[in-house]
Amino acid sequence: MCGIAGVLALSENGKSLFPFLPAAIQKLHLRGPDRHKIHENGDFSGAHARLSIIDLSEASDQPFISEDGRYILLLNGEIFNFREIRAELEGQGRTFKTSGDVEVALQAFMHYGPACLEKFNGFFAIAVYDNQKKSLFLARDRYGIKPLYYYQDGQNLIFASEMKAMLEFPIKRELDEASFRDYFQFTYIPEPYTMLKNVHKLPAAHYAEVKNGEFELKQWYEIPEEKYEGSYEDAQKDLRELMEDSVAKRMISDVPLGAFLSGGIDSSIVSVLAARQNSKMEVFSITFPDHPYYDESTYAKEVAKMHGLNQQLIPVREKDFLDALPKVLDYLDEPFADSSAIAVYVL
């Protein structure tokens, strides 16, 4: 998990917001505690807070700039199939100076344009500035796993991984009453809306191109409506293979990995499959000593014992909840009615 933020000046006055970028990227420190960097080029200034997972060297630091200086990339997330894409690009004559997915993402964009998104298997929020065309490209993954907010007016376009970074800029803050009502109906605020009228979430499976002050939003993916023709047994086999492949792709890392094991079906399957890829991997489970009614660690222990998982139990007491609550409320960008966020924060 990393954090990105940037400003595209749509006028000379828009550049007056560049000095607010250091404070904005600092707000994303928990997303990227390893390194913070900012790069300014003409009408664009971009910042990145890095959590190093693949290619830990500074060569993969961001903002990542193409060798000719034309493109500036900001990437939050991972491209799981970057090695396959890299091999494809090398077959087209492209060369690489790093071993991670960041440079692959940029070279893929340079080679394929927006169509590169269809080749990416991963979760991501991407920003690419073209210094030649003076254009900005923003995109999110198929299911919107990685967040991306944006704000625009006649002077500039601002984007960031979280609302709190956006609020470091002197933007207009006007309550969106429709979103406020949506929260009480859905217990969250659906995209592309936020609590502020002029701040939006870039929708999942969409990309935006900003050029000459024009903002164009396009959908690049939708879930296919294909009827499965196989038998029930075929579906079982295919699902197992898909799950195994999906987990294996997420195990690519240059740092130790862990998994959250709640004891439920989803986390149990993922934890077991991940441990088969890396037997030394630890799984973490939450216990509630003060409230046994909510404590499901018994199931997590059974799963860990059955499959020989290296389990760490994290007790969360009532005092831990109360101590964490102010921090959780401060960190959430919007009202959010799922109390499990507190326990996950403590973990």
Task: Note down, in words, how this protein is organized.
Strand 11 and strand 12 form a beta hairpin. The protein has 2 domains: 3-219, Glutamine Phosphoribosylpyrophosphate, subunit 1, domain 1; 232-346, HUPs (Rossmann fold). The strands form 3 sheets. It has a 6-stranded antiparallel sheet. The protein has a 6-stranded antiparallel sheet with strand order 4-5-6-7-11-12, covered by helices on one side. The chain starts with a strand and ends with a helix. It is of the alpha+beta class and 347 residues long. The chain has helices spanning 21-26, 82-91, 101-112, 163-166, 177-186, 232-249, 265-277, 297-307, 318-331, 340-346; strands at residues 3-9, 35-41, 44-50, 64-65, 71-79, 122-130, 135-140, 149-152, 156-160, 199-201, 206-211, 214-219, 258-260, 282-287, 310-315. Helix 2 packs across helix 3, helix 6 (232-249) packs across helix 7 (265-277) and helix 9 (318-331) packs across helix 10 (340-346).
